[in-house]
Protein backbone atom coordinates (compact mmCIF):
# COMPACT_ATOMS: atom_id res chain seq x y z
CA UNK A 1 0.00 0.00 0.00
CA UNK A 2 1.43 3.36 -1.06
CA UNK A 3 0.73 6.40 1.10
CA UNK A 4 0.73 9.72 -0.72
CA UNK A 5 1.29 13.18 0.72
CA UNK A 6 -1.47 15.21 -0.91
CA UNK A 7 -1.05 18.86 0.08
CA UNK A 8 0.08 17.78 3.54
CA UNK A 9 -2.66 15.20 4.03
CA UNK A 10 -2.08 11.42 3.89
CA UNK A 11 -4.04 9.49 1.28
CA UNK A 12 -3.47 5.79 0.63
CA UNK A 13 -3.65 4.45 -2.92
CA UNK A 14 -6.06 1.59 -2.29
CA UNK A 15 -9.09 0.06 -3.98
CA UNK A 16 -12.24 -1.05 -2.17
CA UNK A 17 -11.06 -4.65 -2.12
CA UNK A 18 -7.60 -3.71 -0.84
CA UNK A 19 -9.02 -1.43 1.86
CA UNK A 20 -11.38 -4.12 3.16
CA UNK A 21 -8.61 -6.73 3.12
CA UNK A 22 -6.26 -4.38 4.96
CA UNK A 23 -8.85 -3.76 7.66
CA UNK A 24 -8.98 -7.52 8.20
CA UNK A 25 -5.18 -7.52 8.53
CA UNK A 26 -5.30 -4.66 11.03
CA UNK A 27 -7.95 -6.53 13.02
CA UNK A 28 -5.46 -9.32 13.66
CA UNK A 29 -2.52 -7.03 14.48
CA UNK A 30 -3.26 -6.87 18.20
CA UNK A 31 -3.49 -3.11 18.74
CA UNK A 32 -6.17 -0.52 17.92
CA UNK A 33 -5.96 1.01 14.45
CA UNK A 34 -7.73 4.05 13.02
CA UNK A 35 -9.23 4.37 9.53
CA UNK A 36 -9.83 7.89 8.23
CA UNK A 37 -11.59 9.16 5.12
CA UNK A 38 -9.81 12.18 3.58
CA UNK A 39 -11.72 14.39 1.16
CA UNK A 40 -11.13 17.97 -0.07
CA UNK A 41 -12.62 19.42 3.12
CA UNK A 42 -10.18 17.36 5.22
CA UNK A 43 -7.28 18.77 3.20
CA UNK A 44 -8.42 22.36 3.73
CA UNK A 45 -9.03 21.96 7.47
CA UNK A 46 -5.72 20.13 7.94
CA UNK A 47 -3.82 23.14 6.55
CA UNK A 48 -4.52 25.10 9.74
CA UNK A 49 -5.54 22.43 12.27
CA UNK A 50 -2.28 20.84 13.43
CA UNK A 51 -3.82 18.27 15.79
CA UNK A 52 -6.20 17.10 13.07
CA UNK A 53 -3.36 16.79 10.58
CA UNK A 54 -1.32 14.76 13.07
CA UNK A 55 -4.28 12.47 13.77
CA UNK A 56 -4.63 11.80 10.04
CA UNK A 57 -0.95 10.93 9.71
CA UNK A 58 -1.18 8.58 12.69
CA UNK A 59 -3.99 6.62 11.04
CA UNK A 60 -3.39 3.08 9.82
CA UNK A 61 -5.47 3.61 6.68
CA UNK A 62 -6.49 6.85 4.92
CA UNK A 63 -8.86 6.03 2.06
CA UNK A 64 -9.39 8.43 -0.90
CA UNK A 65 -12.98 9.27 0.00
CA UNK A 66 -13.39 12.42 -2.11
CA UNK A 67 -13.40 12.30 -5.90
CA UNK A 68 -11.61 15.66 -5.96
CA UNK A 69 -8.56 13.95 -4.49
CA UNK A 70 -8.17 11.79 -7.60
CA UNK A 71 -8.21 14.83 -9.89
CA UNK A 72 -5.80 16.71 -7.62
CA UNK A 73 -3.45 13.74 -7.56
CA UNK A 74 -3.32 13.65 -11.37
CA UNK A 75 -2.59 17.37 -11.56
CA UNK A 76 0.24 16.95 -9.07
CA UNK A 77 1.81 13.96 -10.80
CA UNK A 78 0.51 11.42 -8.29
CA UNK A 79 -1.77 8.44 -8.75
CA UNK A 80 -4.88 7.25 -6.95
CA UNK A 81 -6.49 4.29 -8.68
CA UNK A 82 -9.99 4.44 -7.23
CA UNK A 83 -12.27 6.63 -5.17
CA UNK A 84 -13.11 4.66 -2.02
CA UNK A 85 -16.16 6.26 -0.44
CA UNK A 86 -16.25 5.96 3.33
CA UNK A 87 -19.98 5.20 3.31
CA UNK A 88 -19.59 2.30 0.91
CA UNK A 89 -16.57 0.94 2.77
CA UNK A 90 -18.48 1.10 6.06
CA UNK A 91 -21.29 -1.00 4.59
CA UNK A 92 -18.74 -3.47 3.20
CA UNK A 93 -17.17 -3.78 6.63
CA UNK A 94 -20.57 -4.43 8.21
CA UNK A 95 -21.01 -7.29 5.72
CA UNK A 96 -17.53 -8.57 6.63
CA UNK A 97 -18.53 -8.33 10.29
CA UNK A 98 -21.59 -10.47 9.60
CA UNK A 99 -19.54 -13.12 7.83
CA UNK A 100 -16.50 -13.07 10.12
CA UNK A 101 -18.31 -12.71 13.45
CA UNK A 102 -16.78 -9.32 14.24
CA UNK A 103 -18.26 -7.47 17.20
CA UNK A 104 -19.45 -4.00 16.15
CA UNK A 105 -20.09 -0.86 18.22
CA UNK A 106 -21.79 2.31 16.90
CA UNK A 107 -20.62 5.53 18.56
CA UNK A 108 -21.87 9.08 18.05
CA UNK A 109 -24.43 10.68 15.73
CA UNK A 110 -27.57 12.51 16.89
CA UNK A 111 -30.06 11.42 19.58
CA UNK A 112 -31.52 8.02 18.82
CA UNK A 113 -29.59 7.59 15.57
CA UNK A 114 -27.11 4.90 16.66
CA UNK A 115 -29.81 2.59 18.16
CA UNK A 116 -31.95 3.04 15.02
CA UNK A 117 -28.94 2.24 12.84
CA UNK A 118 -28.23 -0.87 14.89
CA UNK A 119 -31.82 -2.09 14.47
CA UNK A 120 -31.75 -1.60 10.71
CA UNK A 121 -28.35 -3.26 10.37
CA UNK A 122 -29.52 -6.30 12.33
CA UNK A 123 -32.46 -6.54 9.96
CA UNK A 124 -30.47 -6.00 6.77
CA UNK A 125 -27.47 -8.12 7.79
CA UNK A 126 -28.94 -11.08 9.70
CA UNK A 127 -26.49 -12.42 12.25
CA UNK A 128 -24.35 -9.28 12.49
CA UNK A 129 -23.21 -8.70 16.07
CA UNK A 130 -23.91 -5.12 17.14
CA UNK A 131 -22.70 -5.21 20.75
CA UNK A 132 -23.46 -1.62 21.72
CA UNK A 133 -24.42 1.93 20.79
CA UNK A 134 -23.75 5.24 22.49
CA UNK A 135 -24.16 8.88 21.53
CA UNK A 136 -21.92 10.67 23.95
CA UNK A 137 -19.83 13.80 23.71
CA UNK A 138 -16.90 13.98 21.28
CA UNK A 139 -15.09 16.65 23.30
CA UNK A 140 -12.32 15.69 25.74
CA UNK A 141 -14.75 16.33 28.60
CA UNK A 142 -16.81 13.38 27.38
CA UNK A 143 -13.94 10.94 26.93
CA UNK A 144 -14.41 9.11 30.23
CA UNK A 145 -18.06 8.41 29.43
CA UNK A 146 -17.45 7.31 25.84
CA UNK A 147 -14.58 5.05 26.82
CA UNK A 148 -16.68 3.53 29.60
CA UNK A 149 -19.55 2.83 27.18
CA UNK A 150 -17.29 1.13 24.65
CA UNK A 151 -15.39 -0.82 27.32
CA UNK A 152 -18.65 -2.09 28.84
CA UNK A 153 -19.34 -3.95 25.59
CA UNK A 154 -16.18 -6.05 25.98
CA UNK A 155 -14.01 -6.70 22.96
CA UNK A 156 -15.02 -4.51 20.00
CA UNK A 157 -13.62 -5.54 16.63
CA UNK A 158 -15.12 -2.71 14.57
CA UNK A 159 -15.94 0.68 16.09
CA UNK A 160 -17.77 3.16 13.84
CA UNK A 161 -17.25 6.69 15.18
CA UNK A 162 -19.80 9.20 13.89
CA UNK A 163 -18.86 12.58 15.32
CA UNK A 164 -17.89 14.27 12.07
CA UNK A 165 -14.46 15.58 11.14
CA UNK A 166 -12.28 16.66 12.80
CA UNK A 167 -13.90 15.65 16.10
CA UNK A 168 -14.06 11.93 15.35
CA UNK A 169 -10.41 11.74 14.28
CA UNK A 170 -9.31 13.62 17.39
CA UNK A 171 -11.48 11.33 19.53
CA UNK A 172 -9.83 8.25 18.04
CA UNK A 173 -6.36 9.73 18.52
CA UNK A 174 -7.03 10.40 22.21
CA UNK A 175 -9.01 7.30 23.16
CA UNK A 176 -8.10 4.27 21.06
CA UNK A 177 -4.91 3.39 22.98
CA UNK A 178 -7.02 2.82 26.11
CA UNK A 179 -9.63 0.58 24.45
CA UNK A 180 -9.88 -3.09 23.49
CA UNK A 181 -10.74 -2.26 19.88
CA UNK A 182 -9.49 -3.81 16.67
CA UNK A 183 -10.28 -1.10 14.11
CA UNK A 184 -12.05 2.24 14.56
CA UNK A 185 -13.31 4.14 11.53
CA UNK A 186 -14.47 7.74 11.41
CA UNK A 187 -17.74 7.65 9.48
CA UNK A 188 -19.27 11.14 9.77
CA UNK A 189 -22.93 11.00 8.76
CA UNK A 190 -22.96 7.32 7.78
CA UNK A 191 -25.04 6.29 10.80
CA UNK A 192 -27.77 8.65 9.56
CA UNK A 193 -27.86 6.62 6.33
CA UNK A 194 -27.81 3.34 8.23
CA UNK A 195 -30.65 4.52 10.45
CA UNK A 196 -32.74 5.58 7.47
CA UNK A 197 -32.76 9.21 8.63
CA UNK A 198 -31.05 10.51 5.47
CA UNK A 199 -31.41 9.18 1.94
CA UNK A 200 -28.28 8.46 -0.10
CA UNK A 201 -27.87 9.65 -3.66
CA UNK A 202 -28.85 7.05 -6.30
CA UNK A 203 -25.91 4.99 -7.63
CA UNK A 204 -25.73 6.84 -11.00
CA UNK A 205 -25.39 10.15 -9.15
CA UNK A 206 -22.70 8.72 -6.87
CA UNK A 207 -20.83 7.20 -9.80
CA UNK A 208 -20.85 10.57 -11.55
CA UNK A 209 -19.16 12.12 -8.53
CA UNK A 210 -22.19 14.31 -7.74
CA UNK A 211 -23.23 12.91 -4.38
CA UNK A 212 -22.13 16.20 -2.79
CA UNK A 213 -24.64 18.07 -5.00
CA UNK A 214 -27.44 15.65 -4.12
CA UNK A 215 -26.76 16.16 -0.43
CA UNK A 216 -26.60 19.94 -0.87
CA UNK A 217 -30.01 20.00 -2.58
CA UNK A 218 -31.57 17.91 0.19
CA UNK A 219 -29.65 19.62 3.01
CA UNK A 220 -29.15 23.28 1.96
CA UNK A 221 -27.53 24.10 5.30
CA UNK A 222 -24.46 22.24 4.03
CA UNK A 223 -23.60 25.09 1.62
CA UNK A 224 -21.01 26.48 4.00
CA UNK A 225 -19.10 23.20 3.81
CA UNK A 226 -18.96 23.43 0.02
CA UNK A 227 -16.96 26.65 0.31
CA UNK A 228 -14.06 24.37 1.22
CA UNK A 229 -14.11 23.09 -2.37
CA UNK A 230 -13.11 26.55 -3.60
CA UNK A 231 -10.26 26.71 -1.10
CA UNK A 232 -9.21 23.19 -2.10
CA UNK A 233 -9.16 24.17 -5.79
CA UNK A 234 -6.92 27.12 -5.00
CA UNK A 235 -4.52 24.91 -3.05
CA UNK A 236 -4.34 22.40 -5.89
CA UNK A 237 -3.84 25.10 -8.53
CA UNK A 238 -1.06 26.76 -6.53
CA UNK A 239 0.70 23.43 -5.99
CA UNK A 240 0.34 22.46 -9.66
CA UNK A 241 1.80 25.80 -10.79
CA UNK A 242 4.70 25.45 -8.33
CA UNK A 243 5.34 21.94 -9.64
CA UNK A 244 5.41 23.19 -13.23
CA UNK A 245 7.82 26.01 -12.34
CA UNK A 246 10.12 23.48 -10.66
CA UNK A 247 10.01 21.23 -13.75
CA UNK A 248 10.75 24.18 -16.03
CA UNK A 249 13.66 25.24 -13.83
CA UNK A 250 15.07 21.71 -13.76
CA UNK A 251 14.85 21.55 -17.54
CA UNK A 252 16.59 24.92 -17.93
CA UNK A 253 13.49 26.60 -19.33
CA UNK A 254 12.41 30.10 -18.38
CA UNK A 255 8.94 31.51 -18.82
CA UNK A 256 8.48 33.99 -21.67
CA UNK A 257 8.93 37.65 -20.82
CA UNK A 258 5.72 39.65 -20.50
CA UNK A 259 4.87 41.86 -23.49
CA UNK A 260 6.22 45.41 -23.39
Number of helices: 12
The sequence of SSEs as H and E is: EEHEHHEHHEHEHEHEHHHH
What portion of residues belong to β-strands?
Answer: 15-25%
- Fraction of helical residues: 40-55%
How does the major sheet shape up? 6 strands, parallel
Q: Give, in spatial order, the strands making up the sheet with the most strands.
A: 4-3-8-7-5-6
End-to-end distance = 51 Å
Determine the mean pLDDT.
91
| CATH topology term | Rossmann fold
CATH class: Alpha Beta
Going by CATH, the architecture would be 3-Layer(aba) Sandwich
Helix/strand class: alpha/beta
Query: What's the count of strands?
Result: 8
Low-confidence stretches: none
- Using only C-alpha atoms, the radius of gyration works out to 20 Å
Tell me the overall shape. Answer: globular
Number of domains: 1
Write a structural description.
The protein has 12 helices and 8 strands. The protein has 260 residues and is an alpha/beta fold. 50% of the residues lie in helices and 16% in strands. The longest helix has 28 residues. The model has no long low-confidence stretch (mean pLDDT 91). The chain starts with a strand and ends in a 10-residue tail after the last helix. Strand 7, helix 8 and strand 8 form a beta-alpha-beta unit. The strands form 2 sheets. Strands 4-3-8-7-5-6 form a 6-stranded parallel β-sheet, sandwiched between helices. It has a two-stranded antiparallel sheet with strand order 1-2. It has a single domain, classed as Rossmann fold, CATH 3.40.50.
